[in-house]
Write a structure and sequence with these properties.
DNA-binding, 4 domains, Rossmann fold, 48% helix, 14% strand, DNA-binding transcription factor activity, alpha/beta, single chain, transcription
Amino acid sequence: MNAHSAASGAVSGSPAKSSQKNTRTQKASERASERAPKRTPKRATLKDIAKVAGVSSTAVSLVLNNKPNRFTEETREQIRAIARDLNYVPNQSARSLATKSSSLLALIIPDIENLFFASLAKHMEAECKAAGYSLLIVDTGEDIVEQEQALQRMIQFGIDGLFIIPTYSSLEESASLRARLLKTGFPVMFIDRIPERIVDEAEDPALADTESNWRAFAYDHTRGGQLAARAFLEQGHREFGMIGPVERTGRDKGNNSARFEGFLTELLRSGVRVPPERVKNGAFTVSAGRDYADELIDAGVTAVFCGNDLVAIGFTRRARERGLRVPEDISVIGYDDVMTSFGLDFEFTTVKQDVSALARVSCEAMLQAVGAGSGEVLSAAQRMTLLMPELVERTTVASARHA
């Protein structure tokens, strides 16, 4: 074989070897491709929408953010349609930098297992969502340390505003709590439990700070207690019992214990005193109502005012177990009116706090505050709003058996 033939043979064998090598490489590449993570599709931008629509990025931004613009409705709808087709999602981080707003609010609550707070949180989240805000909800479990840690996290998150139902222990240090929240710089809305210092400012303008960033919203629990007392008195009752956190009394108008003060004060106006042994200090739980039922029944009471609906349920169930008829033998009034879906076979009279109304007014105030509103400066008295509760009469109150 001459040199040419040898060279020719070498060249003629090359394509076969090369083809085999390419096949092996292709298969390896395919296997690697299968193992490799899928790339996330590129996120659509304003420029992408603008390119398809044949307009500027600024024009797209104006339309999608509902800002004043000179475009026809047909053009605006075309831009929106293209945005939908491209699955455009606004870049919240970029928007936050541009507007100096995170569109993020926070709610710190003391006990998510309490149905009143859970219902309130649900309504507030809906109100915030409707206004274009996200709501972070943090449960402190009535722990003041957790409350402080939660506040620190909210500051780090860069929230626009805070709703807070303080722990009972922090209420005892209301001046320091107020000072701590004032330093945050963002609007603060106290709900349901109003610190004494806030109450003082509302009652005495001289104590108020013109730079205060707070507002407060609660039901007038004193009036709520009065409503319950009047309902019993009108039915001829004179022997009363109470169950709830009665030791948490004071000048905190949003504090739940104010309902008991209102109840006792109204009874005193009619010349009725409740012996201390008939005032039972317990939690807002079904078990508290049940645990104290025997003592009050044995003491001969004909009417029991319960701190909330859960307590009323516990008491009523135990009274029935004892063979008593409610309301023929003993009358019961609860508080909150959040138990309508609890699956009860009785409907008890209760003092209603409309959680939807509380959520609405507090959220409206927050949205005005974070949006700078009209720039109106509120007095300390105007910053605190007390909503009026109402008595919902059902089937657990009747005339006293001795009347």
